[in-house]
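pasting TerC family protein for the record, 525 residues
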Amino acid sequence: MEFFLDPSTWAGLLTLVVLEVVLGIDNLIFVAILSEKLPPNQRDKARLIGLGLALIMRLALLSLISWIVTLTSPIINNNFFSLSIRDVILLFGGLFLLFKTTMELHERLESNHHESSENKNYAGFWAVVIQIVVLDAVFSLDAIITAVGMVNQLLIMMIAVILATILMLLASKTLTNFINLHQTVVVLCLSFLLMIGFSLVTEALKFYIPKGYLYAAIGFSILIEIFNQIARHNFMKNQSRRPMRQRAAEAILRLMIKEKHEKEKIKQKTNNTTTKSVQSSSEMETFKDEERYMINGVLTLAGRSIRSIMTPRSNISWVNTEKSTDEIRMQLLDTPHSLFPVCKGELDEIIGIVRAKELLVALEEKIDVSNFSSKILPIIIPDTLDPINLLGVLRRAQGSFVIVSNEFGVVQGLITPLDVLEAIAGEFPDADETPDIIKENNSWLVKGETDLHSLQQLLNTEELIKENNYASLGGLLIAQKGQLPMTGEIIYIHPFHFHIIKATEYKIDLVRIIKHQDDIQASLK
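structre below
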């Protein structure tokens, strides 16, 4: 044991341990990937048995050093190639590694491994262990030959192999968990194994690839993957700061957009096929247009402003108590609304809310309109209220509406349950009004007061809503122009042209929207 007192012995032992660990990394990667195929309760056991058998195999090979040396003697020698037992082992081991790794890569690239744990078909325990042992036999040859070439003492070699295996056992579970949690790392490791398998085959056929080249490629790939993991970690960290609702909404919206694009592609492919094929492709679509519109409306509701949902002040029908009884009666009969705000002289002086039918009865009975209307007081909300909180307020209104007011107490509009439904499902025009949006051949005829969210969904674009300072098409065009545009002007917002059909000194009444430049002249003629 005097050689343990020699510092060079300890230096050689340390160097050999490091090399054994480095040479065993590929084996450890393969163990991590194979153990994933087992049920969770068997993975640790498979790792321990596999690496334990690997240790026994390496120690047995070390004890047969004289036999290992003979493995390099050619057994097949001709004019084309010369193969030894070691070469044959490396050749078949490399081919097996290439085959196995290719199958693993194919499985992951095809996403076949993303199955639920309840339905997943796990591999047999001993089948996995045998694969680990077979691959370790191939990997052990390089490790043992390296040990023989570096150190002369058999005991030092065995100690180095034992220490390296213990280190691999300690790191195996952590490495396995890390690899299985990061699918990009799995693909990277499989790529390493492909490269190692190819190097084993070339080495068996006497086409030597310098190890330094392989290690440099592996090191560079690992560095890039580290950058990738850091970028992914920072992305997830930033995403976690955003509200869960917003992230979920964006994910669903992306799904609908993707499904719509796939649907358009299917239609293009089936243009020259039979009607039956078109019908079958239509049956396979995930969302109908109406469903897509409503889901989009629900998910974007929280991001909208109260002003984009309410009926604006200019469209409110209200009862003026300063008018005569006959005038009030005629207004109630001529207007299809069932609920009215009752005001004294002007809209900002609200007394209460009445039902048209009940007020007509009160007028017949000569009851004072002001006293009768004050029984149901209005619910007033600020124009800064969150639309999600608006739903609870409307429930408390019990079928009535709420009044929207700004910070100065000026009435901005009112909101009924129907307004919220229209924000989600689209417009439901009354019998006495025309729709806000009318589709024509190559254009849309749109009212200036049309809600931007509804218009944006209809045009399938995200270019219209950039700020929250405006809620209608008219507000957008005024902001884009910097002043109130005149009749006949054309405003361009990619990829649409907005032709002002009718405008007054105070607002934009009617706009024609054209998507393509070529259609403008045709539509203006």
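The radius of gyration is 38 Å.
Residues 114-119, 274-284, 519-525 have pLDDT under 50 and may be disordered.
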